[in-house]
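Quick one: structure for this chain?
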Amino acid sequence: MSYLNESQTDLLIAHLEENLYHHNHQIVAFIKETFDVEFTLSGLHKWLHRNNFSYKKPNGLPYKVDLKK
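Got it. Here's what it folds into:
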């Protein structure tokens, strides 16, 4: 059972498909401000997985990059 009702879930899915967040705590803050519902990070991870979202940790670039390679 979700803390968000069906219309809130649909609105959040549409928002996440249009906007890119770099950190999950930003999504938690958006949910709190918009719907006045508090999610934990682990709860958000489960919600994202349940709604077919994926997330990846970005790979960093070395400080001294060889542009020829």
